[in-house]
Protein backbone atom coordinates (compact mmCIF):
# COMPACT_ATOMS: atom_id res chain seq x y z
CA UNK A 1 0.00 0.00 0.00
CA UNK A 2 1.64 3.23 -1.16
CA UNK A 3 1.88 6.28 1.12
CA UNK A 4 -0.61 8.00 -1.21
CA UNK A 5 -3.13 5.22 -0.62
CA UNK A 6 -2.33 5.21 3.11
CA UNK A 7 -3.10 8.91 3.37
CA UNK A 8 -6.38 8.43 1.48
CA UNK A 9 -7.37 5.89 4.08
CA UNK A 10 -6.26 7.92 7.12
CA UNK A 11 -7.95 11.04 5.72
CA UNK A 12 -11.23 9.12 5.39
CA UNK A 13 -10.88 7.96 9.01
CA UNK A 14 -10.10 11.50 10.20
CA UNK A 15 -13.25 12.72 8.45
CA UNK A 16 -15.45 10.41 10.51
CA UNK A 17 -15.36 12.55 13.69
CA UNK A 18 -13.77 15.79 14.92
CA UNK A 19 -11.73 14.03 17.62
CA UNK A 20 -9.64 10.85 17.77
CA UNK A 21 -9.38 9.83 21.43
CA UNK A 22 -5.78 8.94 22.33
CA UNK A 23 -5.98 6.01 24.74
CA UNK A 24 -3.44 4.73 27.24
CA UNK A 25 -4.93 1.54 28.64
CA UNK A 26 -3.05 -0.68 31.07
CA UNK A 27 -5.78 -3.23 31.68
CA UNK A 28 -7.26 -5.16 28.75
CA UNK A 29 -10.42 -5.94 30.72
CA UNK A 30 -11.28 -2.24 30.30
CA UNK A 31 -10.99 -2.33 26.50
CA UNK A 32 -14.48 -3.38 25.47
CA UNK A 33 -16.33 -1.02 27.84
CA UNK A 34 -14.13 1.91 26.90
CA UNK A 35 -14.44 1.42 23.14
CA UNK A 36 -18.20 0.87 23.41
CA UNK A 37 -18.61 4.15 25.34
CA UNK A 38 -16.55 6.10 22.82
CA UNK A 39 -18.36 4.69 19.79
CA UNK A 40 -21.73 5.31 21.50
CA UNK A 41 -20.65 8.90 22.17
CA UNK A 42 -19.98 9.42 18.47
CA UNK A 43 -16.22 8.97 18.30
CA UNK A 44 -15.62 5.77 16.31
CA UNK A 45 -11.93 6.24 15.47
CA UNK A 46 -9.68 5.23 18.37
CA UNK A 47 -5.90 5.43 18.85
CA UNK A 48 -4.52 2.94 21.36
CA UNK A 49 -0.98 3.92 22.27
CA UNK A 50 1.59 1.13 22.41
CA UNK A 51 2.78 2.50 25.73
CA UNK A 52 1.49 -0.25 27.99
CA UNK A 53 2.25 -3.98 28.00
CA UNK A 54 -1.49 -4.60 27.51
CA UNK A 55 -1.82 -2.35 24.44
CA UNK A 56 -1.82 -5.11 21.78
CA UNK A 57 -4.42 -7.08 23.66
CA UNK A 58 -6.45 -3.88 24.10
CA UNK A 59 -6.33 -3.34 20.33
CA UNK A 60 -7.52 -6.91 19.79
CA UNK A 61 -10.46 -6.51 22.19
CA UNK A 62 -11.46 -3.07 20.89
CA UNK A 63 -11.36 -4.27 17.27
CA UNK A 64 -14.33 -6.52 18.06
CA UNK A 65 -16.54 -3.58 19.06
CA UNK A 66 -19.02 -2.87 16.24
CA UNK A 67 -18.71 0.50 14.56
CA UNK A 68 -15.19 1.22 15.80
CA UNK A 69 -11.97 1.80 13.84
CA UNK A 70 -9.03 0.94 16.04
CA UNK A 71 -5.51 2.10 15.34
CA UNK A 72 -2.23 1.83 17.19
CA UNK A 73 -0.45 4.95 18.45
CA UNK A 74 3.19 5.46 19.45
CA UNK A 75 4.24 3.24 16.54
CA UNK A 76 7.99 3.84 16.35
CA UNK A 77 9.55 0.82 14.63
CA UNK A 78 8.80 -1.73 11.89
CA UNK A 79 8.28 -4.30 14.64
CA UNK A 80 5.69 -2.06 16.36
CA UNK A 81 3.83 -1.73 13.06
CA UNK A 82 3.83 -5.47 12.44
CA UNK A 83 2.68 -6.33 15.96
CA UNK A 84 -0.05 -3.68 15.79
CA UNK A 85 -1.34 -5.03 12.48
CA UNK A 86 -1.27 -8.62 13.76
CA UNK A 87 -3.24 -7.50 16.83
CA UNK A 88 -5.98 -6.10 14.61
CA UNK A 89 -5.08 -2.42 14.21
CA UNK A 90 -6.52 -0.91 11.04
CA UNK A 91 -4.12 2.05 11.03
CA UNK A 92 -1.00 3.28 12.79
CA UNK A 93 -0.07 6.67 14.21
CA UNK A 94 3.49 7.78 14.83
CA UNK A 95 4.81 10.91 16.53
CA UNK A 96 7.29 11.21 13.64
CA UNK A 97 8.31 9.51 10.41
CA UNK A 98 11.36 7.45 9.57
CA UNK A 99 12.18 5.71 6.32
CA UNK A 100 12.29 2.29 7.98
CA UNK A 101 8.86 2.75 9.53
CA UNK A 102 7.36 4.09 6.32
CA UNK A 103 8.77 1.19 4.30
CA UNK A 104 7.44 -1.34 6.83
CA UNK A 105 3.91 0.10 6.70
CA UNK A 106 4.08 0.03 2.91
CA UNK A 107 5.19 -3.61 2.95
CA UNK A 108 2.56 -4.87 5.39
CA UNK A 109 -0.29 -2.68 4.08
CA UNK A 110 -0.92 -0.71 7.26
CA UNK A 111 -2.09 2.89 6.72
CA UNK A 112 0.26 5.22 8.60
CA UNK A 113 -0.51 8.67 9.96
CA UNK A 114 3.03 10.00 10.43
CA UNK A 115 3.93 13.01 12.55
CA UNK A 116 5.57 16.24 11.37
CA UNK A 117 5.79 19.80 12.66
CA UNK A 118 8.40 21.77 10.73
CA UNK A 119 8.14 22.77 7.07
CA UNK A 120 11.06 20.45 6.25
CA UNK A 121 9.45 17.51 8.04
CA UNK A 122 6.19 18.14 6.22
CA UNK A 123 8.02 18.43 2.88
CA UNK A 124 9.88 15.18 3.52
CA UNK A 125 6.60 13.40 4.29
CA UNK A 126 5.14 14.89 1.09
CA UNK A 127 8.11 13.58 -0.89
CA UNK A 128 7.40 10.13 0.52
CA UNK A 129 3.81 10.47 -0.75
CA UNK A 130 1.86 11.40 2.39
CA UNK A 131 -0.80 14.13 2.35
CA UNK A 132 -2.39 13.45 5.74
CA UNK A 133 -0.14 14.00 8.77
CA UNK A 134 -0.23 14.21 12.53
CA UNK A 135 0.96 17.58 13.87
CA UNK A 136 2.73 16.61 17.11
CA UNK A 137 3.31 18.02 19.71
CA UNK A 138 0.65 20.51 18.62
CA UNK A 139 0.49 23.01 21.46
CA UNK A 140 4.22 22.90 22.27
CA UNK A 141 5.08 23.35 18.57
CA UNK A 142 3.20 26.63 18.28
CA UNK A 143 -0.41 25.48 18.25
CA UNK A 144 -3.04 26.61 15.78
CA UNK A 145 -0.97 29.65 14.84
CA UNK A 146 1.87 27.45 13.61
CA UNK A 147 -0.44 25.16 11.67
CA UNK A 148 -2.15 28.14 10.06
CA UNK A 149 1.25 29.36 8.88
CA UNK A 150 2.01 25.98 7.28
CA UNK A 151 -1.23 26.17 5.28
CA UNK A 152 0.21 29.12 3.34
CA UNK A 153 3.08 27.40 1.49
CA UNK A 154 1.86 23.81 2.00
CA UNK A 155 -1.93 23.87 1.45
CA UNK A 156 -2.04 20.38 -0.07
CA UNK A 157 -1.32 18.70 3.28
CA UNK A 158 -3.94 18.11 5.98
CA UNK A 159 -3.32 17.49 9.66
CA UNK A 160 -4.58 15.87 12.82
CA UNK A 161 -3.01 18.05 15.55
CA UNK A 162 -2.33 16.13 18.77
CA UNK A 163 -0.51 16.94 22.01
CA UNK A 164 -1.97 19.48 24.42
CA UNK A 165 -5.29 19.67 22.56
CA UNK A 166 -8.32 20.17 24.82
CA UNK A 167 -12.05 20.76 24.49
CA UNK A 168 -11.26 24.45 24.93
CA UNK A 169 -8.58 24.90 22.26
CA UNK A 170 -9.83 22.26 19.78
CA UNK A 171 -12.13 24.78 17.98
CA UNK A 172 -9.09 26.95 17.10
CA UNK A 173 -7.55 23.97 15.27
CA UNK A 174 -10.77 22.72 13.70
CA UNK A 175 -11.41 26.16 12.20
CA UNK A 176 -8.26 25.87 10.06
CA UNK A 177 -8.58 24.75 6.44
CA UNK A 178 -5.71 22.26 6.83
CA UNK A 179 -7.13 20.48 9.92
CA UNK A 180 -9.52 17.56 9.52
CA UNK A 181 -9.70 16.37 13.11
CA UNK A 182 -7.73 16.61 16.35
CA UNK A 183 -6.40 13.92 18.68
CA UNK A 184 -6.37 14.02 22.45
CA UNK A 185 -6.26 12.05 25.65
CA UNK A 186 -8.67 14.32 27.51
CA UNK A 187 -11.70 12.27 26.43
CA UNK A 188 -10.65 9.22 28.45
CA UNK A 189 -8.59 10.21 31.51
CA UNK A 190 -6.79 7.45 33.44
CA UNK A 191 -9.01 7.81 36.51
CA UNK A 192 -12.23 7.26 34.54
CA UNK A 193 -10.77 4.32 32.65
CA UNK A 194 -9.52 2.73 35.90
CA UNK A 195 -12.91 3.26 37.56
CA UNK A 196 -14.80 2.04 34.49
CA UNK A 197 -16.80 5.27 34.48
CA UNK A 198 -18.10 4.77 30.95
CA UNK A 199 -20.93 7.30 31.42
CA UNK A 200 -18.42 10.11 32.05
CA UNK A 201 -16.36 9.07 29.03
CA UNK A 202 -19.39 8.78 26.77
CA UNK A 203 -20.53 12.23 27.89
CA UNK A 204 -17.11 13.73 27.08
CA UNK A 205 -17.23 12.01 23.69
CA UNK A 206 -20.64 13.57 23.01
CA UNK A 207 -19.29 17.04 23.87
CA UNK A 208 -16.34 16.44 21.52
CA UNK A 209 -18.63 15.20 18.77
CA UNK A 210 -20.37 18.59 18.63
CA UNK A 211 -17.08 20.39 17.93
CA UNK A 212 -17.81 20.19 14.22
O1 LIG B 1 1.75 8.36 21.91
C1 LIG B 1 1.86 8.93 20.84
O2 LIG B 1 1.99 8.36 19.77
C2 LIG B 1 1.85 10.39 20.78
O3 LIG B 1 2.15 10.91 19.77
C3 LIG B 1 1.50 11.18 21.91
C4 LIG B 1 0.01 11.43 22.05
O4 LIG B 1 -0.57 11.77 20.84
C5 LIG B 1 -0.15 12.50 23.02
O5 LIG B 1 0.45 12.11 24.22
C6 LIG B 1 -1.57 12.89 23.29
O6 LIG B 1 -1.46 14.13 23.83
P1 LIG B 1 -2.34 14.68 25.02
O7 LIG B 1 -3.74 14.76 24.50
O8 LIG B 1 -1.74 16.03 25.29
O9 LIG B 1 -2.18 13.74 26.16
TrEMBL record:
Database matches in PROSITE patterns: ALDOLASE_KDPG_KHG_1, ALDOLASE_KDPG_KHG_2
InterPro entries: Aldlse_KDPG_KHG, Aldolase_TIM, KDPG/KHG_AS_1, KDPG/KHG_AS_2
Gene Ontology terms, MF aspect: 2-dehydro-3-deoxy-phosphogluconate aldolase activity
Parts of the chain that traverse the membrane: none
Swiss-Prot/TrEMBL catalytic activity: 2-dehydro-3-deoxy-6-phospho-D-gluconate = D-glyceraldehyde 3-phosphate + pyruvate
Top-level division of the source organism's lineage: Bacteria
Catalytic class of the enzyme: lyase
Pathway annotation from the record: Carbohydrate acid metabolism; 2-dehydro-3-deoxy-D-gluconate degradation; D-glyceraldehyde 3-phosphate and pyruvate from 2-dehydro-3-deoxy-D-gluconate: step 2/2
Keywords (A to Z) from UniProt: Carbohydrate metabolism, Lyase, Schiff base
CDD domains: KDPG_aldolase
Tagged with keyword Transport: no
The EC number(s) this enzyme carries: 4.1.2.14
Coiled-coil ranges (or none): none
A Pfam family per the record: Aldolase
NCBIfam families: eda (TIGR01182), PRK05718.1 (NF004325)
Family named by the database record: Belongs to the KHG/KDPG aldolase family.
Protein name from the UniProt record: 2-dehydro-3-deoxy-phosphogluconate aldolase
Organism lineage: Bacteria, Pseudomonadati, Pseudomonadota, Alphaproteobacteria, Rhodobacterales
